[in-house]
Fold:
Amino acid sequence: MSKIQKIISGSLKELLQYLGSTNFSKSVLTVIAVITPLFIGINTGYTEIGLAICFGAFWCNPSDVNGSQKHKIYGILFSAALVMVVSFIGGYLHYSNWLALVILGVLSFGISLIASYGFRASLISFSGLLALILSFAHTPGQLKIYEYSLLVGLGGLWYLALSLLWYKINPKGQTEEILYEIIGKTGDLLKKRGKLINGETNRKKLQKKIFLLQSQLTEQHDTLREILILSRINSGTSTYNGKRVLVLVQLIEMLETAGANPVNYTKMDEQFAIYPEFTQLFQHLIFNMADQLQSMAKIGNKPNELPKHQRLNKQFMELRNKISELGTVKNSKAYEAFIMFQNLLEYQEKQFDKLKRIKWLLSDHDVASEEFIDKEILKRFLISQDYSPRILLRNLSFRSTIFRHSLRLAITLMVGFVLGNLFSFQNLYWILLTIILIMRPSYGLTKARTKDRTVGTIIGGVIATAIVYLVQDIYVYGILALISFVVALSMLQKNYKLSAIYVTLSIVFIYGILQPDIMTVIQYRILDTLVGAGLSYLGFLLLWPSWSFQEIQKDVTKSVQANQVYLSKIADFYINKGKVPTSYRLARKNAFLETSNLSSAFQRMTQEPHSKQKNLNKIYELVELNHNFLSSLASLSIYIQNHKTTEASERFNGIIHRIDENLSVVLDALSNDPNTVAKLNFDEVVSFEKQLPKFESENVILNNTDNSALKRNHQEEQLIWEQLRWLFSLSSNMMKLTTNL
Structure:
């Protein structure tokens, strides 16, 4: 196949994937929900009724996001209720500009505060803001205000009915898309982790990418967990859902195993430098597993096309033989390398087992019902949102990011309204609409949206101008407006700049149908966007900005606390043995979730102005230490879960206690406890670290007898003591860093 054919084939696959995505189907659904009542209304002489229902359907669209069907229904119903109330109030805005200004400020502030209740609530809030702003664009003429607002609410119910109908037609679409996205990203993560084996790699740069990818995966795990678990709880056991739950369990464990590292990189580099052939063998093995996952993500739900095991089996066999040969060398250094490589191999074997299990679960094989996880246990893994009024009251403070954002947005909208009236802008609501679309609680996202919206609108305006010069046909404008609107909605979450281009095109073509002077429309569209974008950016900078350095301390604290709990659960399991308790798995989930949140918080900090990146390098060092701490915990966790271990010694308990003490000091320092530094004795910490036991290959008596049990004990000794030394060192460094900060 030629290069051009490959490009065409790849582009065609991407197009088909896009057309089959939930984002595209949702955008088509929204267009149907909007166009149908409008078309019926125009053709029956009830245009205003059709327009009201059309608005209600469009405004309820944002709350229709990935998640369980139950939460979607509640989200759309709450949106419908909110836009109905807002439309009723908005019906009185045209009576007085001063009244409109006050209502705009108070309502936008109140609606924005709804975001205190989480992500879905923030989208319901956005629906309310859309209804408020577009009240300036349309005032009901023939209908009474209460009739118009009731019809807007009916529009929300109409959208909900269509959404439920589509779910009945394609109930698995959302689940399949998220599942295969996770599989593909897990493959990407494995590939990046595989690159870390090579000592010549830029590890800092690669680690940052891994942190970001882990955050995305953790977020998607939560979404898929919610969809699958609530579906099972509400509709009972089904083979499809049961298999997908088990696949998700394997993928979560793959994330943990990928993050684990049996030895620190310094030790690993030393051994790979002596035996460089193992670097390539391990990398090829990891890359092949990653390629299989990415291949599975591309083919989707096609069991007959799942990749085979043969090549991986051959690679494992070759690596096992090489390591076994190394184990026969009667040399202490070679024996140390043998123990390390054997542990590393066993971690990869665990990944391969999970990969094989995923393939089997995605195939046509039936899964026995006893393999399904108990509903009551599953419930405990859901992150439940608290909807108590206390949440709202707690956020009525300048310490709250949401409160400051709500106040900032309300004042910026009021300034935009005043400027629009003073300078008689043609479409005042375009300025206000741009502000609510761009302004976000974080600086990085506000800046990115300001840039993308501005550039997208200008590009869209230029393209629209070229088309208008070439074509003067309202039917062509209608088709182009429809296509542009569908693409704009489907790209909103994936590519905001592209979405802005198509939004501009759709608006220009709609106005091209309604009025002849389309060039004036393009000019005003660009001007209004520039004003709105400028106000959004300045509003964030001048009105109580929320900088990440003020918030990141809380994220570090939560992550360290979660790691501390996970450490105690690992220690308890190593001491008591037996079956892995649910509390252990919950502690692991929480540790990964909080570390992911910390990575996201740090990522936001790097997007802010340099003057606001206070102690950036030290905070990055702290984030990295925390990640490495979790990686070491994962190494311990995987080993003790999958191997029969010896009895825990008093020395083990003593070291765990000292690591726990170090983490407690870190938490005291983060809480700004003035006595923390006074309590520290770094000389004593250094002295204790020097006395920590370690695996000494020189002390091993190497005889001609191949004692498997002895080798297994040495593997455990090497890994356990290596991880304990590493955990103590990491916790000590975190302690020094936080007390200095």
Observations:
- The mean pLDDT is 84.
